[in-house]
Amino acid sequence: MFIAITPYRNLTVQDLEHYRTLATDIDGLILRTPMPMDQLEQWIEQIVRQGFPKDKLIAHNDIQLLERQHLSAIHFKESAEELESFVDTHPNIRVSQSTHSAATIQRAANLDLDFVLYGHIFPTKSKPGLAPRTAEEVWAAVAQPIPVVALGGITLTNISQLPKGFAGIAAISLFENVTTSEMKALRKEWSDYV
Hints:
By secondary structure, the protein is of the alpha/beta class. The protein has helices at residues 13-22, 37-49, 63-68, 83-89, 102-110, 135-142, 173-177, 180-193, and strands at 2-5, 28-31, 57-60, 73-76, 94-99, 115-119, 148-151, 168-171. The radius of gyration is 16 Å and the shape is globular.
């Protein structure tokens, strides 16, 4: 499972074209952006018109966006208070969550979420000075009864060092900057990993 996460900035036409070229190679695109709702909705409508599968678009912690755009998936922050009630009232929506502990992953499994993102696995620019998860923490995370997707500092050169047991990878910069040929190399690295 490959989950791309948009960079936290206003998305451009170039971003739209880039993610559209990745559409067949990724399983989801989390829309994590500070864009105003109307601009983000226009961007969504445009990328869908250009062939990006709508069912691969994932609202980031925004129930209103999910409902207004008739999306079929949402990703919640670890601290989202509305997660449990949302799951109860939206049985047909795919739900995922960011996690940082085995206990949170177990809670997500108990709620029957589709998958969790867990990290960070490697040092990353988005968490400067914060140590990656330990081997023991990773082992406890991937032992949970839910698909656990690795997040944090993953690159083409370190995917082979990823601890075993993950169901996929999620990334911002990796998928933001990857070329078509690098995507093929990433697929090969992932098939070697699993």
